[in-house]
Amino acid sequence: MIVKIYNENPNPREIERVVSILRDGGILIYPTDTIYGMGCDALNVRAVEKICDLKGINPQKSNLSIICNDLSAISEYAKVDTPTFKLMKRNLPGPFTFILPTTSSLPKIYKNKKTVGIRVPDNPIIREIARALGNPILNTSVKDEEEEIEYITDPELIHEKWSDIAEIVIDGGLGGIEPSTVIDCTSDEPVIVRQGKGVLNL
Fold first, then answer.
1. Which of 29, 36, 120, 199 yields a CA-CA distance of 20 to 30 A from 1?
2. Per-residue pLDDT tens digits for 78-130
3. Which of these CATH numbers, 2.40.110.10, 3.90.800.10, 3.40.50.300, 3.90.870.10, describes 2-194?
4. Which Pfam families does UniProt cross-reference here (predicted)?
């Protein structure tokens, strides 16, 4: 199923429709401020495992990332010291993934690496879905190294490719091709481990 939702004023009825699919363990493809993402309710372990399987992600070796609706939700899922919080506050919402130590609120699948990537995208649609769900959203991109650009930017083509896997694809307009900038905040000083779309305001 593909659903059109507008950035400026996400329709509450459509948001609720998406949320009910996520609560049932469904997989969602959604717009962000970077590349279209694929995710699920981040606290639904079975759905998380399904996506890891599909994408060939080994959660014991890779950081899993989650989308929170705002900064206030982050401290429940990650340990954030004051300098890191100030850094995040200067840069979020925005095209950044901050790698932080996990807390006990996240399921065991996230604790293998003891760290989690945190995103608060500058995209009202996915933030509103996370807010309405009351849980973070697992965040992986639909990008594939071999992929033609249209299949990661055009929601109709994304739907054509993934419709047998994702219960719902949100058409939020054309997506980008540049991933987020990833910052590791697990040491004394933040380290940029991948330079992407965002320019970090230190």
1. 120
2. 999 999 999 999 999 999 999 999 988 889 888 777 899 999 999 999 999 99
3. 3.90.870.10
4. Sua5_yciO_yrdC
